[in-house]
Amino acid sequence: MIGLQVIKPGPLSLIQDGGRSGWQHLGVSPGGPMDWQAAAWANRLVDNPWGSALLEVALGGVELECRVSTWLALTGADAPVELDGSPLSAWSRFAVHPGQRLRIGFARSGQRFYLAAAGGFAVCAVLGSASTHVREGMGGLAGDGVALREGDVLACAEASFPGVASVPWRYRLSAEAPLRVILGSDSADFSGEQLDAFFSRPWHLTPRSDRMGARLAGEGLVAPSREWSQGVARGAIQVPPDGQPIILQADRQTMGGYPTIGWLYPRDSWRLAQIPPNSPLRFARGNLIEAQAELRSFYNFFGR
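Above: the chain sequence. Below: its structure as tokens.
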């Protein structure tokens, strides 16, 4: 099989694509990339269609041996990246040939990388998607939800491009700005004092955060009581009884019973995916129209 052989898989490297849509009524999470901005750019750099299968690398520490002449693109977190010992530029595409080794060091900033191959990685779909969902045991190379392991081969085709290309700085999301929130759902049941407290109190991202949800730590909120569950979406900010908010991410559950104070803007959910544990978080009030306009512009640009 031609492609990229895994020499070192890193802490958590997962095949992801456009996600597993149409199954939430049966409790199946959509999954997909944590940072859609970086993933979409990786595919675009090698002319792949929206949602083509690529590799999401958490933290780094990955080494791959090439068995094919093709082009790859790497975006996302910042880290030392080398091809046969020669450094590569961030957010760029580059040619590889059989016998060469690609090394992705550990992240200096950010949390996740996205590696795309021209034509996408050839992976069998489960319920219409190759996205790896470890908790639900589906997707990935063997369809069983297992992360990449040493010896695995990421199958891809030969390809050629006229030259290198990279993503300008202005198109890369900044982690510095506050995360914007659309109030709604149960926000009317929170007191005005508690809503103000959510936006004014200092919060930190805890190490317990993962692909399912970002867990915050700070002076807890007083949430309203609720005795029923409802459907939830990515970016929903739930407040459990301990008052420590949880922001749902790509591998979230499909139903939830905790009160929901609002939702992050979709593009801010992607920024959150690159923020390291123990980092301070700031929130700002936003509005639905602005969030929709941003997302519509993003989808139009990438041809979704």
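Residues 288-302 form the longest helix (15 residues).
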